[in-house]
């Protein structure tokens, strides 16, 4: 059994709640679209969300704020993001768990969020992380097994030396697991009884502490 050297964490839904992104995508952007095209907010929201669905979350563009601003002929996404910065909310155990993890591991972010979101999402705890990886902005791909292998190469470790945790069964559990990382599925609802599920980052700390360590 390889010793875990690096703990990789997802960002949205793992460290921060979805509130910031929800407001950006489903409030702020439709409001700008309504103003640009002379529609009511409800009309604009329905059209914006129709176009989101048309692209689908299986394409990188779905996550790219620059793509949507170009598509909708809008200006200045920075002002939109800044306007919702008070909606960035960390889960209550995050600071405590990160402080504990830092004592034993290097920490990295492996996220599907675009770089444009990072300054807002990491404003409080960014210094905890040795590296921040955005699959969309840095590599133009979703969080595939190849993305996680790239993270390992960039960090100079084998996949078996990395543990990853996140709230997406597909992108934070199956993908890193296929790449050979020790993957944990973060299920804050505690509804899914799945192997290697954790219910909070405190739970992750306990699970990692229970792994026998090589001497």
Task: Provide a concise account of the structure shown.
This protein is about 45% helix and about 10% strand.
Keywords, please?
six-stranded parallel sheet, 10 helices, alpha/beta, 45% helix, elongated, 215 residues
Written overview of the protein:
The chain is α/β, with parallel strands linked by helices. The protein is 45% helix and 12% strand. The chain contains ten helices and six strands. The chain has a six-stranded parallel sheet, with helices on both faces. Helix 1 (19-37) packs across helix 2 (41-55), helix 5 runs parallel beside helix 10 (201-209) and helix 8 packs across helix 9. The longest helix is centred in the first third of the chain and has 19 residues, at 19-37.
Mean pLDDT: 94
Q: Indicate the proportion of strand residues.
A: 5-15%
Give, in order, the helices and strands: EHHHHHEHEHHEHEEH
Biggest sheet, spatial arrangement of strands: 3-2-1-4-5-6
- The number of distinct helices, counting runs of at least 4 residues, comes to 10
Radius of gyration: 18 Å
**CA-to-CA gap between the ends?**
11 Å
Tell the overall outline.
elongated
Write the layout of secondary structure elements.
Blueprint: E1 6-9, H1 19-37, H2 41-55, H3 65-71, H4 77-83, H5 94-102, E2 106-111, H6 118-121, E3 131-134, H7 135-139, H8 145-155, E4 162-166, H9 169-179, E5 182-186, E6 197-198, H10 201-209
Parallel strand pairs: 1-2, 1-4, 2-3, 4-5, 5-6
Helix pairs in contact: 1-2, 5-10, 8-9
């Amino acid at each position: 059994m390889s010793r875990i050297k690096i703990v990789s964490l997802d960002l949205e839904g793992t460290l921060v709640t979805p509130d910031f992104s929800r407001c950006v995508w489903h409030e702020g952007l439709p409001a700008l679209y309504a103003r640009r095209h002379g529609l009511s907010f409800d009309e604009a929201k329905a059209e914006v969300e129709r176009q989101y669905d048309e692209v689908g979350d299986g394409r990188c563009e779905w996550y790219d704020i620059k793509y949507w601003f170009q598509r909708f002929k809008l200006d200045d996404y920075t002002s939109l993001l800044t306007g919702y910065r008070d909606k960035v909310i960390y889960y209550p155990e995050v600071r405590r768990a990160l402080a504990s993890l830092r004592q034993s591991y290097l920490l990295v972010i492996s996220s599907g969020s675009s770089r444009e979101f990072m300054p807002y999402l990491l404003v409080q705890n960014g210094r905890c992380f040795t590296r921040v990886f955005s699959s969309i902005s840095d590599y133009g791909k979703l969080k595939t097994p190849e993305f996680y292998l790239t993270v390992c190469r960039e960090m100079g470790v084998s996949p078996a030396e990395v543990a990853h945790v996140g709230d997406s069964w597909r992108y934070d559990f199956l993908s890193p697991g296929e790449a050979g990382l020790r993957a944990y599925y973060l299920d804050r609802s505690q509804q899914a009884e799945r192997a290697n599920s954790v219910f909070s980052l405190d739970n992750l700390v306990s699970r990692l502490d229970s792994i026998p360590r090589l001497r």
